[in-house]
Amino acid sequence: MKLPALAIHGGSGTITFGTKDSELKQQYLNALNVTLEAGFEALAKGQSATECVCKAVKNLEDCELFNAGKGSVFTAKGTHEMDAAIMDGKTLKAGAVAGLRGVKNPVLVAYDVLQNTPFVMISGEEAIEYARHREFKFAPDSYFFTRLRNDQWQEIKGDGKMQLDHSGEGAKFGTVGAVAVDTDGNVAAATSTGGMTNKAWGRVGDSPLIGAGTYANNRTCAISCTGHGEHFIRGVVAHDVSCRMEYGGETLEQASNKVIHESLKRVGGEGGLIAVDSSGNICMPFNTEGMYRGMKNKTQTITRII
Predict the structure, then answer these.
(1) Segments forming the whole domain that contains residue 84
(2) In degrees, to the nearest 5, what angle opens at C-alpha 203 toward C-alphas 187 and 206?
(3) Phi, psi of 36 (to 5 degrees)
(4) Catalytic residue positions, numbered
């Protein structure tokens, strides 16, 4: 047994670092390592997998490097609309939010929906009202402003196009997520995102959709996805991995790799996922040039970008 274990991601895509970007690259790696250490410490102390993925994703939401929480991209209206989801593999209970504005940590609201309501997903103005009613922390627009995200928006502002979170010459699918298995063998997954730059009409991607971008089931695995959301929704990617394991007898590695490198690519989908099963096995496949990712168990800690 390899329990407990934790894996995280901060997005996938074309991730290019020039010779002058060594400091920025190190900042990303440091952010991943800090998140891994905090999340795994909680696991080692006996906290549940669900509590720990929530903690890990909150840490990433607090970091402006990633397109979630503080670092969320701009919508067509110049606002920030955030989505998040969390699922408990033991109970199959889940909570999700879509279209939140002004909330510092959407994953905390999603977790509250899981714990304190009979619902799975709430969205839009009512979800914002719920967050205020439950006294979650809000922040002014200035908190979510970053020069990088604003520059990205200004490039395509007003032309009606939506664009993936991107940097330099490449495109990056900016989502953050975590999967974990605790000392009792329970798994959980959480995902959070700021969506697409210049998005309009309340567009929602796969991140808050249970079975598409987020899924957890003790019988199989926990999954958090990152990529072009529409393709992940159409392929019900997270649940597909679980089904291949439960009904097809595939291992975590077999199922994850087939979905990312075969099924998803057949429909033109790009991205990746992180996965963990109840034995502590971890898989982090992607079909893009890179993925911000990391994993930690009792014997090893790994963080990678490319």
Answers:
(1) 5-304
(2) 20
(3) -60, -45
(4) 175
